[in-house]
Structure formats: C-alpha cells, structure tokens
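Hey L., structure's done. Input below.
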Amino acid sequence: VHVWSDNTCPNSPHGRADRTHNGEQIDIAVINTARSADALILLPAAMLRLYESSTETIASEGLDPINRDTFLLSMPKIWSLACDYTFEAILADNPINYCLDPSGCLKVKDRLRKQIPGLSDCFVNPMYHFSFDGSIASELCRYCLETFKETHNKGKEQVWGKLPKAFNLPSWDEMRKRE
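Output:
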C-alpha cells in the first residue's frame, strides 16, 4: 500500500495521477484489500484513479461485488463533481462578466473541452491536474484564464472534501478515526 500511495496515487488536490503499466489491477487490489481490512480511507483515492479506466475493465476485472456496485453507483456523482466544481468555468456556455473577447474565449473553451481526457464521454476525473502552462488555455483573455485557474484549483479542494460521500463512505474525519 505504501508503494501504491507514494508512487501512483498523488490524487490529492495538488497532485496528479499517473497511470502505471498495471495500474488498474493494482488499484483494484488496493480497493478490495482496503475494504476487507476496513481501511476505508484508501478507497476514495483508489476508486477515483480507477474512474479513469473503462467501464468494461471495471465490470470484469476483479472488483469485489460491493466495490463494483459502489463504484458504478458513484459514476454520476463523480461526473457532477467535475461539472459543478473543477471544470465549471470551462463547461459554462456563457462568457464571464468581465470577458474581454466573448466569442474568442468561447471558441477556446470549446477546444479546451476536447483536450481534457474523458470530458467528452462523461468520464473526467474531477481531480484531473490541468496544466495551464503551454496549453491553449493561455489563449483565453486574462479574466477568463484567471477564472478558470481559480475555479479549477478551488474546485479540486472542494471535490476532495466531497469524495467520500460520492463513494457512499463516511466523512474523511470519521475514516481517520477508524485508522
């Protein structure tokens, strides 16, 4: 578990998740083991990493039934967290109030939506680390860019706090008490 959490699961509000060769199988093993060992505090991060996989993998690759059901029932909640918090500014169809180039920024936002993994098929990780450096986001006007950065980063903080509920788990504080 230490190797998994140290090297493959920096899914905190400031980290990013990098998939490894057998990442899905490792995530599945961590999820099943965490549940059976009552180490529930590991489940939100592990399930969120697995969220980046395909549903066929999830349904057929060894998740215990309770974990599979929990995971599948969480999918609309995870999508909502991404839409309502992390990517709210980029998904909005209207320009922000102080936008300097409404039509240009809307076109850039359209292109950005296509660049974010999983966004087009409702499988986006709400903790996805969007790199603003060197991306087409820099083509947004300064107000839209600042709004996107601010809502994205603040959204990740909010999502992290809401993850346990999305996976039908006790709060972070309650899970820490169980350790």
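Confidence is low (pLDDT under 50) at residues 6-21. The radius of gyration is 17 Å.

-- N.
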